[in-house]
Design goal:
Elements: E1 13-18, H1 25-35, H2 38-48, E2 53-59, H3 67-73, H4 84-96, E3 100-110, E4 113-122, E5 125-134, H5 141-147, H6 158-174, E6 181-189, E7 194-202, E8 208-209, E9 213-217, H7 222-229, H8 244-260, E10 267-276, E11 281-289, E12 293-299, H9 305-311, H10 314-317, H11 322-337, E13 345-350, E14 357-365, E15 371-378, H12 385-389, H13 409-425, E16 432-439, E17 447-455, E18 461-468, H14 475-479, H15 492-508, E19 515-522, E20 528-536, E21 542-549, H16 556-560, H17 573-585, E22 589-596, E23 605-614, E24 618-630, E25 645-660, E26 665-674, E27 677-686, E28 695-706, E29 713-726, E30 731-745, H18 754-757, E31 761-773, E32 784-794, E33 804-816, E34 822-834, H19 841-844, E35 882-895, E36 899-911, E37 933-942, E38 949-956, E39 961-965, H20 969-974, H21 979-982, E40 987-991, E41 995-1001
Helix pairs in contact: 7-8
Length: 1005
């Protein structure tokens, strides 16, 4: 309520209710009524009961709730008689809002009636929690803030901070900062009822370890145990600084030490770390119970120790009990059954403890080795057998991948359950799945057959659906989303899906307390049910305001542009999470917390909170690597035009400055140096350009110095600007302008051509790139398409010295031929078309701008970049102005689940011009390179988390022949204009090897 407060001279009616921390508001009110002074209450009731209310006021005037909200909560009205029941109801409702910590009600006679005044004290809620001061990492500021246990948006009491301060001090102690201090500071915001808490931390000196005290039954040399902890530096001596991770790792290393001695029940616990302030040393006190030596053995079958540790969980749990041993026996049985020993039986026997040693024998009877020769499913009419097989774990034997098939009793039970669940989810409530296992199938010893029979039973349907309770949402829109509509199969799983769908729609629209109940009864028709859904919507919640905290460098405008919630919008958890994702996508925040302030309070409008932790401004990355491939011969030699195996180590260094000027923009420097290349790149990225989703603007400056690898060395200076637009989830378009200057040196070609190709060239090119990716898995694709198009125009108007049109397109498709086979195909086509140029089209295109192809990702019939036209004298590749490649792969599983094989065929070449593209397979002479080269081969793929490791062995069916000059560059220049005539012994016919080998990570395409 707004307006001046009345200054009371005499309080004749007063209720005071303070909210205990552990009681809800209604409970506090009941306690007050139960234990309040009854005589005084009676006298007050007798004095004011029934008198007309002339004024209702709140003190202070500014209340945490809006005036209309308070008015809607109060049953008291001006001009109506005062009722004590209404006073109680008013207090109860105000407390239920959660916004008040204390409420007093006072009254006095006023203008022939009674004036009622509510004297309130606000509740406070946790806002931004930060840690500042002289910090020594670890622990970092974020780790300390998390250790405080103060949750965003929750009710706040100053007593909470006492415990938080102790928790922070304990965290400092655990990291060797025993002299550290923690001091809390509070910043109260009465307008939003938030209190921002800042912990000022002085870390002090970090203590170092000293010789630990080891107590208990060690059963080992104390010196060996101390050495195993890693707390003392190896070789150079001295003790390391104390950190929590080092303490925990040290205890873990002691456990590992005992495990190597087969003491699997060893118990290692840290009692304390005793700190000596004078020496600034911390002495860990460790309590150890080594336990007996326990030896696990496999009897009856050979089991590698690594396998035994993997399947018997006593190693992982550091304990030996009956349940873990039983689980180990079951795991070992499944292990042998999955390898063809389908009759395997595993038991364990514990030997008596003698002389501090105990032995556990796993008695393994493998039985005969079988092969799952046949798997048959009968009785299925609703689902195809292929659809059922895709969900099954049993696999019949195959030539290479599963020599004995995949079978165990556990796998069979799992498959029966999977089939049953599938049928029940589609309305077959009475389905029965049984199986029969036949030994010596078709009279062949060791062969096993599994017959699975399905009794589908009747399919149940929904006869009618009645949905009650939808009042505030679009009923037709909601009903259209349901699976359990009339005429559809009935199952409890479909009802569960509908429940989640309905509640998600309500939660998204601000109904956090919506509930769902359902019931069914048999319909008049057989095998049909009448469904009834009942929804209780509850009260709709709205956003009162969005409060952002934790910004130090970042401009508030950047955050505000990415908020999906505004005052008055429904309080939607979905939109809250979407906003959180958008803020993370900016790449400038290490953490984005979101919460609703006063979540349990019964108010219709809520504050939505976003609390940020900004990421470090600088990010540094370094890397080391090497390349082994046919990367050229000696630097000044012309004797390896077809490439020669070489080794090139490289190192990289990258540094990024994030959130430049608080705008969310990033500037990055990347560098790479090797024996082949020196590269430096500076880029400036503007994410979400003009606040458009999927729009990014970048500026790039590049310097690249590539040494003599193939035909020439080059230096390239380039500046570019690019705008990328994500049109859809699958499609992205790049608009790019680049201006570069390229110069070439050390050219290994005919001296007559050197003056033409070594002139520095400026190229200004405007290009549009489009990418469409509809693959199911970019790392290991089984179905989908992948298309790229690059169209560029180099023209004088853009600052280019050469005028040409550049097009390069690629289309890749992936077709599953069966559950195991995938046919993958990729076709690439490119052309460089010069204009306003007289003479040879090939010479119109600068040497560094031409197409160079061949190798692991294009045509494996060539070494890297060895396809296309070649110099007639030296035999080194010159690149081309047209490109046509087609790659086909048949991918199939080979051994187990991780190793697969590939049969491939690559065809294509780089051509001197578009008109010279040919499908010929024969080379006319040693000067003819415009024909199609075919390569076939076999590859292996080993699946890893970062992509398959790839090995390809290729055989080129028709590799090119060419003339090569035996000698140095100086010999070539001294030989004159026509070296093959002046030095005929040095011009020798050579050729690309038929056999090629490639090793890399990732699929070919």
């Amino acid at each position: 309520m707004n307006g001046p407060a009345i200054k009371l001279q005499l309080e004749v009616l007063r209720y005071h209710v303070a909210v205990p921390r552990r009681l809800n508001h209604f409970g506090c009110f009941l306690l007050f009524l139960a234990f309040g002074p009854p005589r005084l209450l009676t006298a007050q009731v007798n004095q004011f009961e029934g008198k007309k209310i002339t004024v209702i006021q709140f003190q202070p005037v500014r209340q945490p709730l809006e005036g209309w909200q308070i008015q809607s909560m109060l049953p008291l009205k001006i001009g109506q008689p005062l009722r004590m029941a209404e006073i109680r109801a008013a207090i109860q409702r105000l407390f239920a809002s959660g916004t008040y910590e204390d409420i007093q009600v006072a009254a006095e006679p006023y203008r022939g009636g009674v004036a009622v005044r509510f004297i309130t004290r606000n509740s406070w809620f946790i806002g931004h929690v930060s840690v500042t001061g002289n910090l020594s990492n670890p622990p970092g500021a974020g780790q300390l803030a998390n250790a405080s246990g103060l949750e965003l948006g929750q009710p706040f009491k100053e007593s909470q901070v006492e415990q938080s301060t102790k928790d922070l001090k304990r965290l400092l102690d655990r990291n060797g900062l025993f002299e550290g201090s923690v001091q809390p500071f509070f910043d109260y915001d009465p307008q939003t009822q938030q209190v921002h808490i800042r912990f000022e931390v002085e870390s002090g000196r970090r203590a170092r370890f000293t010789t630990p005290e080891l107590k208990g039954a060690l059963k080992a040399s104390p010196e060996d145990l101390i050495d195993s902890t890693g707390w003392r530096r190896w070789l150079i001596g001295g003790w390391r600084p104390i950190t929590q991770s080092r303490v925990l790792n040290g205890l873990s290393h002691i456990r590992d030490y005992y495990e190597k001695q087969n003491r699997l029940e060893a118990k290692v616990a840290l009692d304390s770390v005793q700190y000596d302030a004078d020496s600034n040393r911390g002495k860990p006190v460790v309590n150890i119970d080594a336990g007996p030596q326990i030896e696990l053995q496999a009897v009856g079958a050979k089991v590698p120790t690594k396998t035994l540790k993997r399947y018997v969980p006593v190693y992982e749990e550091h304990a030996v009990d009956h349940d873990l041993l039983v689980e180990g026996a079951r795991n070992l049985r499944d292990y042998f059954q999955s390898r063809g020993f389908f009759e395997a039986d595993v038991e364990f026997k514990q030997q008596r403890l003698q002389q501090d040693k105990a032995r556990i024998d796993y008695l393994i009877n493998r039985g005969k080795r079988h092969k799952l020769a046949h798997l048959e499913i009968t009785g299925n009419r609703y689902f195809r057998t292929e659809d059922l097989r895709e969900r099954m774990f049993l696999v019949p034997s195959s030539f290479i991948q599963f020599r004995h098939g995949r079978y165990s009793e556990a796998y069979l039970r799992r498959d029966e359950e999977a089939i049953t669940n599938l049928y029940r989810a589609n309305g077959f409530r009475d389905v029965r799945v049984t199986s029969k296992v036949v030994d010596d199938y078709r009279g062949k010893a060791g062969n096993l057959a599994v017959f699975i029979h399905i009794e589908e039973g009747p399919q149940w349907f929904v006869a009618s659906l009645a949905v009650e309770g939808i009042e505030r949402l679009n009923r037709d829109e909601i009903l259209a989303m349901l699976s359990s509509s009339a005429g559809q199969p009935f199952s409890e799983s479909n009802v569960a899906i509908d429940r989640d769908t309905l509640l998600e729609q309500y939660f998204t629209r601000g109904f956090p307390n919506a509930t769902f109940e359902w019931s069914m009864r048999l319909a008049a028709q057989p095998y049909q049910v009448d469904l009834r859904f009942e929804i209780k919507e509850g009260e709709q919640k709205f956003v009162r305001q969005v409060l952002v905290s934790g910004l130090n460098t970042t401009k508030p405008e950047l955050v505000n542009r990415n908020l999906n919630l505004n005052p008055g919008d429904p309080l939607s958890p979905t939109r809250m999470r979407d906003t959180q994702r958008r803020l993370y996508d900016l790449g400038v925040f290490a953490k984005v917390d979101t919460a609703v302030q006063n979540p349990d309070g019964e108010t219709q409008h809520k504050y939505v909170l976003y609390d940020m932790e900004e990421a470090r401004r600088f990010s540094i990355a370094t890397g080391f690597g090497a390349e082994v491939a046919r990367i050229g011969g000696p630097a000044n030699s012309l004797e390896a035009p077809g490439g020669q195996t070489g080794f090139a180590p490289r190192v990289s260094f990258d540094i990024s400055r994030l959130n430049l000027w608080g705008s969310g923009q990033t500037i990055t420097f990347r560098s790479r140096a090797s024996t082949l290349e020196r590269r430096g790149l500076v880029s400036y990225l503007v994410p979400r350009f003009r606040n458009a989703e999927g729009l990014q603007l970048s500026f790039t400056a590049l310097y690249d110095d590539t040494r003599d690898v193939r035909t020439f060395s080059s230096k390239r200076q380039e500046g570019s600007v690019q705008l990328s637009q994500r049109v859809s989830k699958a499609t992205t378009i790049f608009y790019r302008y680049a201006f570069r200057r390229v110069s070439v040196t050390d050219v290994k070609i005919s001296p007559l051509l050197i003056p033409l190709v070594t002139q520095p060239v400026r190229v200004g090119i405007l290009s549009v790139n489009a990418l469409q990716d509809r693959r199911d898995d970019p790392i290991d694709t089984h179905r989908g398409i992948y298309n790229t198009i690059d169209l560029g125009l180099a023209e004088r108007a853009f600052g280019s010295q050469r005028n040409f049109l550049r097009f390069l397109g690629r289309n890749s498709t992936y077709h599953p031929l069966s559950k195991k086979l995938v046919l993958a195909r990729s076709t690439s086509f490119g052309v460089l078309h010069p204009f306003r140029f007289e003479g040879d089209a090939l010479q119109a295109i600068p040497l560094a701008e031409r197409f160079f192809s061949g190798g692991a990702t294009s045509n494996r019939g060539f070494p890297e970049n060895q396809a296309g036209p070649r110099d007639e004298i030296t035999g080194f590749p010159l690149g081309g102005t047209a490109l046509l490649m087609n790659q086909t792969e048949l991918r199939f599983p080979l051994i187990g689940d991780n190793i697969s094989g590939v049969l491939f065929h690559d065809a294509g070449n780089t051509y001197s011009s578009l008109e010279k593209i040919s499908f010929r397979v024969h080379q006319r002479d040693v000067k003819d390179f415009d024909y199609m080269v075919h390569g076939v081969g076999f590859g292996l793929r080993y699946r890893t988390p970062i992509g398959p490791v790839r090995v390809d062995l290729a055989y080129s069916l028709n590799p090119p022949r060419f003339f090569g000059f035996k000698g140095t560059l100086e010999d070539l220049i001294n030989a004159g204009v026509n070296p093959c005539q002046t030095a005929p012994g040095k011009c020798v016919e050579q050729g690309i090897s038929h056999f090629q080998f490639f090793f890399s990570i990732g699929q070919t395409f």
